[in-house]
């Protein structure tokens, strides 16, 4: 039987709001996460934990705190502290959290400093009540999720292992059991230069690149009952920035492809090469994958972790979860698909992500803490 009074104390609303606001106040664009990570580590130390700063690139450490409590399963809690750049038109200072009713406004409040704060409070609560569980809890606050995910990659490259992972990204209404992957395809087209007055003597790389792009819709996209594959052209460059009357001999384009389980970077490259071959073009096409690459991921709904999570969610909310599948990418892709850790993405409700006046729903910060604590007490036995 779970101690409801302990759950309420561990998820105190005012403490959660204060901690989230403190994190929001520290600007943490990708590449600038050092200060906020040191603040995370200091809070953990002040609350009886022993965090480590794991180097990645430059002044951009991950924060890792382990709570070991005898033999048993390992639960990994993960969140990122970097934010996107502040959009124009905020109605208040993006780095000064503003509370209005049940909403807490601030850059990164929803994506995802409230989720990081929740994971910090969960870790402290479990460290203080070791009599309730057995095993290991690993708290990780990572950098660079909004760019290349070097923080998550560093954890995986270091060999992190766990029996379950909860990524506390905002997903309150639809806890996430999977998501599309991402392939960034770079295409280089090599033609032959000639005088612009004699185009027949050259091979126009810009034209040949355009021919391929015009037929992209002919490529078959992967099919999945819960996720949607898609593709879009992000850029196309050719010719010289300086005015010259020369048929361009090189062109480069970038295509963003979201893939579903069953598709890989190699399968996408094979499809692109087949499309280029079908053009019978006089130009040469070369394709490569640029970073970041994210594999698609999916957690089976009948997995024991999902069953335990469903019990915890229902105990807190009084209803079964309506699981969702993420149309974008996150670090959950890596923990699930690359590290092979059973993973669920679940965190507070948030609105306006990557937009001005982003906000997080305050009651769901505490709700997130209680759901995950219920899950932890069920799992860590």
| Secondary-structure class | alpha+beta
CATH topology of the largest domain: Aminopeptidase
Query: For the largest beta sheet, what order do the strands appear in spatially?
Result: 1-2-6-3-7-15
Strand content: 15-25%
The shape, in one word, is: elongated
- The CATH homologous superfamily name of the largest domain equals Zn peptidases
Question: What is the CA-CA span between the terminal residues?
Answer: 14 Å
Average predicted confidence as pLDDT:
97
Give helix and strand order, one letter per element, not per position.
Answer: HHHEEEEEHEHEEEHEEHEEHEHEEEH
Number of domains: 2
Helix content: 25-40%
Number of strands: 17
Cofactor: Zn(2+)
Domain Peptidase M20 dimerisation: 188-280
Protein name: Acetylornithine deacetylase or succinyl-diaminopimelate desuccinylase
InterPro entries: ArgE/DapE_CS, Bact_exopeptidase_dim_dom, Peptidase_M20, Peptidase_M20_dimer, Peptidase_M20A
Description:
The protein is an alpha+beta fold and 381 residues long. It has two domains: 4-179 and 296-379, Zn peptidases (Aminopeptidase, 3-Layer(aba) Sandwich), CATH 3.40.630.10; 181-294, 2-Layer Sandwich (Alpha-Beta Plaits). Helices cover 32% and strands 24% of the residues. It has helices at residues 4-10, 13-24, 34-46, 109-128, 150-157, 205-214, 265-278, 304-317, 332-338, 362-379, and strands at residues 52-54, 62-69, 74-80, 98-100, 103-105, 135-142, 164-167, 176-179, 181-190, 230-238, 250-259, 284-294, 297-298, 324-326, 343-345, 350-351, 359-361. The strands form four sheets. It has a six-stranded mixed β-sheet with strand order 1-2-6-3-7-15, sandwiched between helices. The protein has a four-stranded antiparallel β-sheet with strand order 4-5-17-16. It has a four-stranded antiparallel β-sheet with strand order 10-11-9-12, covered by helices on one side. It is elongated. The mean pLDDT is 97. This is Acetylornithine deacetylase or succinyl-diaminopimelate desuccinylase.
């Amino acid at each position: 039987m779970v101690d409801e009074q302990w759950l309420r104390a561990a998820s105190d609303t005012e403490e959660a709001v204060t901690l989230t606001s403190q994190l929001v106040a520290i600007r943490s664009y990708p590449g600038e996460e050092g200060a906020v990570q040191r603040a995370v580590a200091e809070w953990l130390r002040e609350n009886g934990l022993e965090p480590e700063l794991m180097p990645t690139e430059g002044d951009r450490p991950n924060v890792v705190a382990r709570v070991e409590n005898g033999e048993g399963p390992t639960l990994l809690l993960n969140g990122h502290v970097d934010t996107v750049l502040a959009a124009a038109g905020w109605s208040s200072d993006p780095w000064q959290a503003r509370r209005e009713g049940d909403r807490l406004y601030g850059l990164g409040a929803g994506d995802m400093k409230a989720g990081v704060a929740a994971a910090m409070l969960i870790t402290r609560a479990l460290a203080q009540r070791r009599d309730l569980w057995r095993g290991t809890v690993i708290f990780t606050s990572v950098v660079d999720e909004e760019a290349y995910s070097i923080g998550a990659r560093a954890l995986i490259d270091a060999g992190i292992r766990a029996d379950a992972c909860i990524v506390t990204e905002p997903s309150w209404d639809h806890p996430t059991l999977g998501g599309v992957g991402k392939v960034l395809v770079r295409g280089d087209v090599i033609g032959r230069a000639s005088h612009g007055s004699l185009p027949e003597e050259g091979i126009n790389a810009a034209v040949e690149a355009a021919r391929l792009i015009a037929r992209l819709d002919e490529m078959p996209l992967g099919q999945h009952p819960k996720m949607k594959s898609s593709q879009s052209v992000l850029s196309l460059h050719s010719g010289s920035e300086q005015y010259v009357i020369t048929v361009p001999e090189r062109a480069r384009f970038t295509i963003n492809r979201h893939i579903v389980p069953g598709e890989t970077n190699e399968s996408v490259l094979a499809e692109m090469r087949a499309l280029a071959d079908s053009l019978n073009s006089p130009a040469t096409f070369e394709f490569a994958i640029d970073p970041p690459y994210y594999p698609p991921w999916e957690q089976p709904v009948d997995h024991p972790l999902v069953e335990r999570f469903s019990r915890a969610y229902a105990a807190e909310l009084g209803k079964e979860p309506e699981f969702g599948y993420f149309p974008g990418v996150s670090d959950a892709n890596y923990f699930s698909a690359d590290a092979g850790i059973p993973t669920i993405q679940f965190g507070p409700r948030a609105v306006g992500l990557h937009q001005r006046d982003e906000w997080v729903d305050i009651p769901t910060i505490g709700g997130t803490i209680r759901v995950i604590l219920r899950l932890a007490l069920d799992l860590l036995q």
